[in-house]
Design a protein that fits this description.
mainly beta, 10% helix, Lectin_gal-bd_sf, Jelly Rolls, 2 domains, 39% strand, five-stranded antiparallel sheet, 209 residues, lectin, repeat, single chain, four-stranded antiparallel sheet
């Protein structure tokens, strides 16, 4: 089984970043979130310098945290989450909280294609494409930013998972007409992860090309 890595960010820090767990994992890999919690499950984590009264509630958990982190991070090489996105409403006023995420690396092919360009998904003959996760929008200012005005890359909260990739062929020109426009005047891109599946004697096997 793949090793599980853990990232914990205390409430005082506004963002945390998930990257590939370790250098020993294949370059052909993406994030797979196993569990995520915003709140407090013990008295030790993120406890330095905090009064006892802020640490005693160990049953504090924000509903929906795991789903949000999975949506933002699954299938990505790297992802960033603002803790403010999971902190409201406050699940336990007076308790010092943290965002705790367990994740591993899933072998997959990672593709990024800029808006209006060709998305190339390729598998060998006899194999079929199986999409693990896809996201259309913008999550940072650097991806697909060449020769773009600053206002076109400024909105990094323009992002959302899409199941439209299942309808793509090996080559497909895409844009807002296919996925809808989650943020006007922002230059967007498609980010996805997939594997190539083979069938031998009724057994399904995953292969990377």
């Amino acid at each position: 089984a793949a090793a599980v890595d853990r990232v914990t960010t205390c409430e005082a820090h506004l963002t945390f970043v998930l990257r590939k767990p370790s250098l020993s994992i294949s370059e052909k890999g993406v994030i797979s979130v196993q569990a995520a919690l915003y709140g407090r499950a013990d008295t030790d984590t993120c406890s330095e310098g905090r009064p006892v009264g802020q640490l005693t509630n160990t049953t504090c958990s924000q509903p929906g945290t795991e789903d949000l982190v999975k949506t933002r991070c699954d299938g990505k090489k790297e992802c960033e989450i603002n803790i403010r996105d999971v902190a409201t409403p406050d699940p336990c006023v007076g308790t010092f909280k943290y965002l705790d995420t367990n994740y591993t690396c899933l072998p997959a092919i990672h593709v990024v294609a800029c808006e209006g360009s060709l998305a190339h998904l390729f598998c060998a003959e006899g194999q079929v494409i199986s999409v693990y996760g896809a996201d259309y929008g913008r999550r940072d200012e650097t991806t697909c930013s060449y020769r773009r005005f600053s206002f076109q890359t400024r909105n990094t909260l323009c992002s959302g998972p899409t199941n439209k990739v299942a309808e793509l062929y090996a080559y497909k020109t895409f844009g807002s007409s296919l996925f809808g426009d989650p943020c006007r005047n922002t230059y967007k891109y498609l980010e996805l992860a997939y594997v190539c599946e083979c069938t031998f004697s009724g057994l399904h096997l995953n292969h990377l090309v």
